[in-house]
Amino acid sequence: MTAGRPTAYRSLMTRPIALVTGASAGIGTVFAQRLANDGYDLVLVARDRERLEKLAAELPTETEVLAADLTDAADLARVEERCRDEARPLDLLVNNAGFATAGAFAELDLDGEDREIRLNVLALVRLTHAALRGMVGRGRGGVINVSSLASYQPGPYNATYAATKAFVTSFSHAIHEEVRGKGVTVTVVCPGPTRTEFAERAELQGMTGPDFLWQDPGPVVETALRDHRRRAAVSIPGIHNRVAAAFSSTLPAGITRKLAAFVMSRAK
Ligand code: NAP
Question: Which pTM does this prediction carry?
Fold first, then answer.
């Protein structure tokens, strides 16, 4: 099942269902809005119940609010259970929730790094597993994992974040290949700088740069859904980001990590 052509695969009486994590803000909110407009019923996941309920009230399709802190094992287990629910099977899982820490690793609070790994990596792996088995069994479904351009090179002063996203990109590519041809598509989305609450939450006030480098979440989500519909393994929104990813993939890590260190040491 891919986003945007919901009724081709299900009865006309029921709408397809998408679960979006991190739906209370930024890219996740736009995913929820676009998918609802495409005819999906939604399951919205994030910690802030009030924001999720406000969004749910604005969406044109049926919406379930599942307030959960995905770094908490019990909360995560509730969301996994929802992903496995065969009575209300998911057609699309969007693993979007994520955050960054920034600064010299030795000086950062270790609990924050731990939470970052649990959200960006562990929750994404567990939710993907919970949803994927049923999708493969039904021979239809999709998973969109939101990674980052930061996944293409080591990230000094952003080390754990870049490493979590390198995991997400590698993991998603691998799973894409495993389920290819089984009616299920896994797409990894690698945005560059995007105007959301992300930089503020990471206290990256210096993460600025020329305006043309920044995208609104709308085009990021539009590109992601279009690429997912085409059954692409990877979606990089914006030509400048695609060029950056190509350079980072070909240059030696000794160069890219120095460039990243130069940029990030000024962003904090
Ligand atoms: P955002 O505006 O800060 O939104 C992050 C979302 O994640 C919020 O809905 C937040 O909701 C949720 N979240 C955070 N911690 C959570 C937790 N413990 N449990 C459940 N939900 C949690 O950031 P964004 O830019 O939209 O980020 C979305 C994704 O894009 C992330 O994976 C990020 O790494 C990636 N990305 C962003 C950029 C960028 O420049 N913005 C660039 C590349 C990649 P609550 O606070 O309500 O829990």
Answer: 0.94
